[in-house]
Every structure is written in C-alpha cells, then in structure tokens.
Amino acid sequence: MASIRASRGAYLVWSAGLLAYVVAVLQRSSFGVAGLEAADRFDAGPTVLAGFLVLQLLVYAALQVPVGVLIDRFGARTMVLAGAVIMTIGQVLVAVSTALPLAITARVLVGAGDALTFISVLSVLPAWFPARRVPLMTQVTALLGQSGQILSAIPLATVLHGAGWTAAFLSAAAAGVVAAVAVFAVFSDRPPGSPPPGPAASPREVVDGLVAAWRHPGTRLGLWSHAGTQFSGLVFALLWGVPYLVAGHGMSPTGASVMLTVLVAAGAVAGPVFGEFTARHPLRRSWLVLAVIGATVLVWTVVLLVPPPAPLWLLVVLVLVLAANGPCSAVGFDFARTFNPVHRRGTAVGIVNVGGFTASLTTTLLVGAVLGIAGGYHPDAFRIAWLVQFPIWAIAVLGVLDARRKARRVMAAEGTVVPPIREALRRNRRMRRNLR
Question: The CATH number of the domain where 268 resides is what?
Fold first, then answer.
C-alpha cells in the first residue's frame, strides 16, 4: 500500500514538473507562430527576426552548465519555480513592447527561464521512479512537454490573429503564473523520508565535477547525439517552419499551424518507442541517433531538390521525420545519466543540453542571414538557406562516432564489451532458432 501511495506521489510530482515544462515550451515557441507579425510590429528583416531567437537560444545554451551546477547545489524545485517566474515576466514585456530593445530583453528573459526548467524536471526522475523506468519517463516528459507547441500553434495563434499581439502574449504569461503555482504547491526534489543531500560542493569541487563530466566520453557522446538530432526540428518549430511553409510553399497560416501540430503529435508517438528501445538496448542507443540523423538528412535533401511548391505529401513526410528529432535528442540525456555518478548528473545533463541548442541557434542565425542575402522570404531563398544544416549534421556525426569509440574503450576497461552489431544480430538469430 505504501508503494502505491509513493507511486501516486511520484506521478503527482512529475505532473507538476511536466506542466512547468509544457508552459516553458509554449513560451519558447510562441515567437514561432508570430514570426511574420513580429516582422511587421518591429519592422524587422529576416536577420533581425532570427536575432530574436538566436539571443533566446544563446542565453538558454550558455546557462545549461551553470544550471546543472545549480541543480546539484540548490535542488530542482528552486530552479523550476524561478524559471516559471522569469518566463512570465519576459512574456509580459513581450506583450507590451513596441520597440526592439525591450522586445529583445524580453526574449532573453524567456530564454533564461526556459533554461532552468527542462533539465531540472529531468533531474528528479531518478529519485521518484525505478531506474528501469527512467529512460521511458524521460522520453514521455520530453514529448508531452512538446504539447506546448500545440498550445502556441493553435490557441495562442488564434488569439494572436483575433485579439492581437498584446492579448496573445499576456495569455502566455498567465499560463506561466499557473505553472509557478503548481510547482510551488506540489513539486519536490525527492520523496519524503529520503536521505538529505550531502553538503554543498565547494567551488573547487564544482570545477572538478564539471571537468570530470566533460572528460568522460559518454558525456560527449550525449552532447553530439543531442546536437545532431535536435536542431533541425527545433529551428523548424520555433521560428522558420511557419514562414517556410507559407512563403516557401504557398501554404496558408492555418495550414502551417496544423503542420506544427502534426509534428508534435507524431513526436508523441515516437517518444515512448524510443524510450523503450533505449531501456531494452542500452548498448545500441547510438545507432538510433545515427539512424534519425540519416533519415532527416535524406528527407531534407529530397525536399530541397524538388522545385517549390513541394507536394503536400512530401512536406508531411518532412514534418514526420522532424518529429523524431526531439525524442531522439533525449537519448543524449540518457547517455549523461548512465555514464556519470549521481553527484554530477545535473552537470552532465547541462553539458549535453548545450549541444542541441548551440546547433539550433547557429542554424537559426545562418538561415536568417542567408535569407537576408538572398532577398527575403521567397521560395528560392529558403531552398538556399536550409542548406546551412548539412555541415552541422556532418560535424555531429563525426562527434558521435569519435565519442562512441572512446566510450566503448572505457566500458571495455570496466568489463563491458560491446560486440559489433553484425555479431549481435547473428547471436540474436541463433537464439531465436534455439527457441524454436
């Protein structure tokens, strides 16, 4: 009976954290559905518009390692609560801003609050759930959190196009208040009766933990996995997807919003599948990463080779493949969790999260810059601009292969040898024959 109560408590705590993350994704992606309106409101060209998101993502990426350290020192509840409050303030400023400096400051606050949320929510999962369920709960958290994109793609966009800019962003700020109240009332770092955390680390111990986390090739494997799988889908969802579908392929704003909804819904299907795969096949997680990167590269290549407007079915395929990017990027967090001891997991997860968001802000800035040089929002300019993704994929794949080789060397020294995949497949076939 006590275990049932503990399980209920775990899901209640998780639900409060999930709500905070859903709202964080809503705040993060709110600018994506308002890109063309923002261009009019602030008289901003593609490069300036990209600058909004680049600054937001730059702040997010820059804070990931400090946030990981702060989680290890002050606890996740404090971080999630602070994040909800900061994002609420940022969205209020977005709602009332009519000049670029205030709007930019506001989006920086949104990025800072967003940075405090996701890895803080993930950090409490090992304390509340059995180790076997943590990979699945990580995927479910990441994917249900993406429902915040649906909130921005449909309700927020509806308010934006109906009641206007100020009403839309004030409604987003109101959601932040709800999240802050839920976290304050329910969210907790660990179950009641759990041993208290050890004494706070000294500055020297913090630096040593950061260095140790970075030096472990498993952490770097997580970083490159996160970098290679997250950025394409995130950049599409947060800023350039709607303008690309509308101006690049002649889709209506409503149709483009529906496509973003499809992206989130498809990701919700892929996430639990990926989570179960990583739990059952922990030695083959990197192959899942490489497969998703390869599929994304292939579909983007086909889409960019087809003269616009591309057929609807092909754009749907693109969105479905991009939907797998977010769930697969969560594999990077699983690498950080399994390759690092408990006392530096927050730091390691922060390092991993830098990868995807650094790739995302780089892509966002480059797409905006190329659009500006190529003449703005028209089909041929978008075809050129999206090419900036390919070098980033190449760098990420090389990073995954190098870090995987070094991580397997460390695992072999510790007694865990990863057999070549062909040998593993042959072994599985033999086992199936013997079972018959």
Answer: 1.20.1250.20
* Counted domains in the chain: 1
Nearest to 368 by CA among 63, 19, 31: 31
Q: Looking at the domain assignment, is residue 435 inside a domain? A: no
Residue 51, in any domain of the structure: yes
**Does residue 57 lie in a domain region?**
yes
Block mean pLDDT (10 aa), the chain, length 436: 56 93 89 73 74 76 80 86 94 86 86 89 87 79 80 80 85 92 91 68 73 89 94 87 90 86 84 80 86 97 93 95 91 86 78 87 88 86 95 96 90 71 56 52
pLDDT at 236 (0 to 100): 92
Nearest-angstrom CA–CA distance, 140 and 124:
14
> Residue 2: its pLDDT value, please?
38
Range of the domain at 219: 9-188+214-417
- Answer whether 214's CB lies under 8 Å from 55's CB: no
With respect to residue 426, please indicate whether it lies within any of the assigned structural domains: no
Sign of the dihedral defined by the CA atoms of residues 328, 329, 334, 335, in that order: positive
Which among 182, 170, 146, 113 has a CA at the least distance from the CA of 22? 146
- Please say whether the beta carbons of 205 and 314 come within 8 A: no
Helices (H), 97-151: 100-115, 118-123, 125-128, 134-145, 147-151
